[in-house]
Amino acid sequence: MDVSPTGDLIPVHWWTPAEIRRAWPDLFDATSGHLPMPLMVAFAIALKDELGELPPADVYQVPTGSGETITALRWAYSNKEFQPLYGESVATAFEKKAPLNMVVAPPCEK
Fold first, then answer.
1. In this structure, is residue 84 part of a structural domain?
2. Residue 44 is part of which domain span?
3. Helices 37-51 and 68-76, interaxial angle, to 10°?
4. Alpha-carbon torsion 21, 22, 23, 25, what sign?
5. Structure confidence by residue, pLDDT tens digits, 90-99
6. What is the pTM of this model?
């Protein structure tokens, strides 16, 4: 399946940040899991501002794809525990090459 207007880009594998920089050196990489740290920090601040105090829970389960949302939530609420959820029932899928896996899911879940 082509995902480009010119027929040149077919998603057959997970692109690494280095591959994307080589292909498009002058463009911002908004690929899932590749967002720059300052932007992720801004997300964490915005999430905490929007959500405020979270309702009491032992663990907060978060539908997780590439990991930006759960990572930002963990930064915003460092005293809370967030568990990633993957699967069709939550409209996400685990991608073994996603760059944030090592910080999103414990090693036993990979």
1. yes
2. 35-109
3. 60
4. positive
5. 767 787 777 8
6. 0.72
